[in-house]
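Ticket #4471: structure output looks truncated?

Reporter: J.K.
Steps to reproduce: submitted the chain below (937 residues) through the standard prediction queue, then opened the result file.
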Amino acid sequence: MVTKRETPDQTSQAGTGAGGAAPAGSGGRRPRLLLLDGHSMAFRAFFALPVEKFGTSTGQSTNAVYGFASMLVKLLRDEEPTHIAVAWDLSGPTFRHEEYAEYKDGRSDTPPELPSQVPLTQDLMRLVGVANLSAPGFEADDVIATLAHQGGEAGMEVLIASGDRDAFQLITDSCTVLYPGKSLSDLRRMDPAAVEDKYGVPPERYRDLAALVGEKADNLPGVPGVGPKTAAKWITKYGSLDELVAHADEIPGKAGQNFRDHLDDVLRNQRLNRLATDVALDVDVRALGLGEADRTGIDALFDNLEFASNLRERLYSVIRLEDGAETAEAAPSEGFRVDLTVAGTGELASWITEHAAPDTAGSDTLTPTAPAGVAVDGTWGRGTGRVDALAISVPTGEAVFVDPTVLDPADTEALAAFLADPGRPKVVHEYKGALLALGAHGWTLGGVVSDTALAAYLVQPGQRRFDLADLCRRYLGRELEEASSGDQLTLDLGDGGDAGSGHQHLLAVRASATRDLFGVLSAELDKRGGTHLLHEVELPLVDVLARLERAGIAADTEYLEGLQGEFASAARSAVERAHEVVGHEFNLGSPKQLQQVLFEELGLPRTKRIKTGYTTDADALAWLAAQTDNELPAVLLHHRDQTKLRTTVEGLIKTVADDGRIHTTFNQTVAATGRLSSTEPNLQNIPVRTDVGRRIRRAFVVGEGFDELLTADYSQIELRIMAHLSGEQALIEAFDSGYDFHAQMAAQVFDVEVEQVDGEARSKIKAMSYGLAYGLSVYGLSQQLGIAPEEAKRLMENYFAEFGGVRDYLDSVVEEARRVGYTETILGRRRYLPDLTSDNRQRREMAERMALNAPIQGSAADIIKVAMLRVDAALTEGGFSSRVLLQVHDELVVEIAPGEREEVENLVTRHMGSAYDLRVPLAVSVGSGHNWHDAAH
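Returned output as attached by the reporter:
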């Protein structure tokens, strides 16, 4: 079918096109038509970016979409087209198959991670304002050829972005092919001279050359023994393939005889190679101007795809947005109300008294509905920070810029009192960063009624970025000048400069923008039922997390260095053993050399076909190890494991601070389900179920002045939440049975006594139970257990036959979310999923997996956060010296002060166990020891 889009004729439209280029008719510039070969670009993007590094939390691969979007940005920026379209292949046969049934037979299977990305890429093109075109019975090349022909007749300059050499026959003085080079961003301009230089024939004769040589990708055999040079020599001598055929008897030697013997193949190739220029398309080439982009739709798609980069901003810089010229032409930071004072020595105290005094007279100037905005410039992380400057903006529009180095004692006292006063409400962006930076300066921050990053996260938890500039665009429709790095500015304070200018003005604008966002986001939170989560859970947790980061956890550096050496030695030994097995040295980190050794020299079974040959990833090596008796695949896997462990330990050593402790950074706005994450270093990815992972945990030890570490975690919390939410009585009874939970479940599913359940049956039911909490499919279960899909299906059917309430709950979750548009946790944490009603199957299924995943994981996140708050408050109120150090998944790590073990253990167990009243008890397991490993239970 032909996908049409209503777009006004760009030759008469005012405004600017992509990259600021004037459309045809405005300024006299010749129209430029850019035609993209959709599947060609998607394949190139897929193989250029590692699929394992581009994917969503629900398992949707995204490398092709990301790469395609990146190439689009580059093309729009560099080529500045006035008209653009993407041509796509359809799945049905074409006229070429009707003539030659074997056309394109033998092509490598499409990677399974790619097909689901094509509709997502097409959605992105539609949202950007680019037409998606296709035609039944024809290939994308034919659609491109037709549009190129029409564009040429309309006087356009034509550019074709394609990796298919068949497009070379379209090249003229006004039509250029942008052909892939070595990297994703490398495109070679193939004009008539470039084609003739490379192939020895002009573009109009390239089809003749291809007919002689053949095309393996299309399963079009050429003349044996005839390569491009011989074909070019013949065509040059006789002028064309037609003339060559007429003089076939004159071609000497074996090559000539082969040509005559395969003449029918050559003539067929010539017919099939010809691109159709007369495809019936329901769109005129002059109507293919770049349309207005749907910013809301792009934001939603990028959020669903979890793109955490500046790709969105790069894309916005080269497309036409719905808010049109006003946004594009607006100067950064316009529209924010700022009357700036740059406070000199002795001037800040009086400004605070005049503009930000405590609300003692009942004035509503600084009520919670109209707080002061505070913006802090500096650095923060790993439990500390630095303040370089700050700005305060009040609702009347006045703002003050503060350089801490010029404050006198009265100014410092007034500022400290303002910042700490809980009676003077404030709103900040990235509250924890401000706490750490100000805390390192000796200041406290009280009265914070909102963190705009946290508020935006609760409004749209699927978003991946919550920087202030992006939020201003989304919610205020205003452009905020970007900071130099994230939201932490680097200010050139100079000699004070002019009031209201430069970076001083920018910081004041950010304070004003934060305050303006507060009102909009507060209203959104009220509509979405998230106000109580912000004020009762997320904001109070910021202070707790800041203290956890400041405290850090002690590390045994000597032990870590020993582990590092051990893993490095094991990796070297694996290299030596691999060389012994093969009989010569080779680079274990080179996929090309691995392919040569595994599949050519050793003749091992071929793995999945990829662009560069056959994959040698971890799954492939594990498969080879199971399929063959050759030792090498297992040695290679061991080498990779030891290398990865060495890298992990090296990373930990580098993060040990001068106080001998590791200060990780906790993130509240990364996981869409509400879970906390950890970075620099990531302490949540240290494996706990492997012996090596447990050995790494031994490096985390009790600090000086404390007796031991205590760990407390929830037992099977996701399954307990599933029992609570589903109300499945058999599941509830399994928890209350007194038996091992998974064994009891297995006994019911397999209809045996609990004592008869073996380890394999227990493992299958455990995988099933946890998998369902994460939206596991039949195929996913079969892959996880290494069983056939039919067996996985039977296992799932038996499970649901015994626990029908679970199936009914899972079905109802998706249907209810489809009806209301969101899922909800036990504390009301919502995740809006508009794609549940999408016509795009891939996007709809991705949203369905999110709908299954969010309530259970999100409720677990809610419960552990409430538990943290209660445990921390109880420790503080009880005057204990013991302190919480880490939260890792469903586990708390507490450092126990001398003489406090029994009381603190009871306190932790009681408050964790009562964090939420489920239909089944919240079981808490506790252990203690000198290090994190020994404290396990």
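Triage note (M.O.): checked the attachment and the full token line is present. The chain has five domains: 10-191+276-305, 338-551, 554-662, 679-728+821-937, 738-802.
Status: closed, working as intended.
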